[in-house]
Amino acid sequence: MINIHVISFSKGGPYQIIRSEMSNAMEEALSEEWLSPFWGSFGNPRNYFTGADTASVLYDYIFYEGKSEDVKVKISN
Fold first, then answer.
1. Domains in the chain: how many in total?
2. In which domain, by residue range, is 29 found?
3. How far apart are CA 23 and CA 65, in angstroms?
């Protein structure tokens, strides 16, 4: 699982401030799976820089601003 201690979900934290105005594309597309080590941006076994020697951490997010139901986001690896 992703090291959630790096992600501050607390009220008033950076993530919540951004989420109050924008949508997290990965969370919408992947539901709970967005916290999987598969999507980690640091320590991901598929990452040539860190490899599998480090715990997977999610540092990168994809946010978008849009209030329309017509907005579609596609995530692929």
1. 1
2. 1-77
3. 6
